[in-house]
Amino acid sequence: MGLIDCASGNSLWRGYDYHKENKVSKLIPVGDGIYEADVSGSGKETYHVVVDIPHPRRSKCNCPHADGKRIICKHIVAAYFTVHPEEADRLYREAMEYEAEEEKRQAEIADMLPSLIHKMKKGDLESALLQVLYDGPEWQYDKFLREYFDIY
Ligand SMILES: [Zn+2]
């Protein structure tokens, strides 16, 4: 598994931000695919990071979150992206593409919904409507009674 796959989604995007905010300094290669760097944290502190790209789980950071654990924290991710900025750009591009796809899919579903509802049986429609009214917010329930039955 690559380093990116070992990191949580949260560490990945926080690490991405840190890389883009130039929080990584003193990046030096210390071995084959192994780098050391300083990464400034959210406050005044600076953490020391070892990024081991061939063996991501051997990467180290002395922040409270990752110290002594085999966790890929945002500081390690930030240092990794500074070594491989093209990976950071690829991650961003893929996330944007995914978001655009998802938006398109949601719009298609919304377009289809009226005709799907139109094809529903009356009994199914009735129970679905009751379900929505019972599960939905109180204002929606009240509004329905008001608009269709003049009940206040
Ligand atoms: Zn860390």
Topology, element by element:
Blueprint: H1 3-6, H2 9-20, E1 24-31, E2 34-40, E3 46-52, E4 60-61, H3 74-83, H4 85-118, H5 122-135, H6 138-149
Antiparallel strand pairs: 1-2, 2-3, 3-4
Helix pairs in contact: 2-3, 3-4
Zinc ion is lined by residues 47, 61, 63, 65-66, 73, 75.
**From N to C, what is the helix and strand string?**
HHEEEEHHHH
Query: How much is the average pLDDT?
Result: 96
Continuous helix count: 6
Low-confidence segments, given as residue ranges, are none
Descriptive notes:
It is a single chain. Strands 1-2-3-4 form a four-stranded antiparallel beta sheet, with helices on one face. The protein folds into two domains: 3-89, no CATH class; 120-152, no CATH class. Strand 3 and strand 4 (60-61) form a beta hairpin. Helix 2 crosses helix 3 (74-83) and helix 3 crosses helix 4. The chain has helices spanning 3-6, 9-20, 74-83, 85-118, 122-135, 138-149; strands at 24-31, 34-40, 46-52, 60-61. With 152 residues, the chain is α+β, with helices and mostly antiparallel strands. Bound molecules: zinc ion. Zinc ion binds at residues 47, 61, 63, 65-66, 73, 75.
